[in-house]
Amino acid sequence: MYPLIKFLSLWIYPLGFSIAVASAALIFFLQSWRKTGLWLLAFAIGNLWVFSTPVVAEKLILSLEREWSDQPVESLPMADAVVVLGGAFSSGNGRWVYPNAGGAVDRYWHAARIYHVGKVPIVILSGGRAPHLEAGPTEARMGAMFLQDMGVPSEAIILDEESLTTRDHAIYLAEIVKERRFASLIVVTSASHMRRSMETFGGVAPRLIPAATDFSVSDNPAFTIRRYLPSASALSASTGVIHETVGGWFYGIAGWKSEEQ
Predict the structure, then answer these.
(1) Beta partners for 189?
(2) Which residues, 6+ apart, have CB-to-CB distance to 181 below 8 Å?
(3) pLDDT tens digits, residue range 142-160?
């Protein structure tokens, strides 16, 4: 199911969708329906251009990020543990000596801050190994390596090495919470991912405290002509927002959102 969902989702993202529409345009051209083919090709190019512009990507990101505050860790309440949702590391399928970190590594850095100011005694790291990967450490284990390098002792870290999706995180986290009898959790993930996480985690613990990090844009970016020109990074950002939005819809349809938040 996991590989199938990942494959199907590619075709609703701007790049995959535009390629599909452009392919349809080519078929119409070959069938001598040139006018229809031209319209489809223009639509594919326009769609890709729009979602590749920073100004559009920024507005999409803000729609997810603006409801969460960027607060200092000192202002957070005390809790039994902090849970970090995975998605930052790669081991090159076990071929690299040390893991490579991506942009979401802010999640682990933020958890280390929370631990070091004494807000929690335990850090829970969530994330398994994708089915197409045959070797290398899990996401959770790579995160543990990072946190230990940042001074978090191994005895303060709990690993969930099975989760592959936000829904999985909630299922396996609930088991840890029940076993350890935790009453409160600080939830750390990217600001753009926090809404779906909190909707899915409701009921996992009596008290959930969001601590968003990895913010991408400010409310009032400066005007530049480049914000209206295509950018690979803007396309990636737009794709991330669409992933979160469609994921939220799917979770709602599947009944994976909890009413307890």
Answers:
(1) 212
(2) none
(3) 999 999 999 999 999 999 9
d(CA 192, CA 97): 31
Q: Whole-model pTM?
A: 0.86
* Tokens at 155, concatenated: 């005895």
Contacts of 107 (CB under 8 A, 6+ apart): 84, 85, 87, 88, 188, 189, 190, 213, 214
d(C-alpha 77, C-alpha 114), whole Å: 10
Residues 158-215: tens digit of each pLDDT: 999 999 889 999 999 999 999 999 999 999 999 999 999 999 998 899 999 999 999 9
Greatest distance between any 2 Cα atoms in the chain:
70
- Of 236, 206, 1, whose CA–CA distance to 104 is shortest? 236
Cβ pair 130, 93 in contact under 8 A: no
* Residue 252: pLDDT over 90: no
Structure tokens given for 51: 């979602």
CA dist 232 and 235 (Å) reads 5
One-letter identity of residue 88? A
For each of the domains in the chain, give its residue range(s) and CATH number, in order of start. 7-65+232-254 (no CATH), 73-213 (3.40.50.620)
SS (H, E, C) 121-185: CCEEEECCCCCCCCCCCCHHHHHHHHHHHCCCCHHHEEEECCCCCHHHHHHHHHHHHHHHCCCEE
- Separation in Å, CA 236 to CA 7, 28, 86, 188, 213: 17, 29, 19, 22, 18
**Type of residue numbered 31:** Q
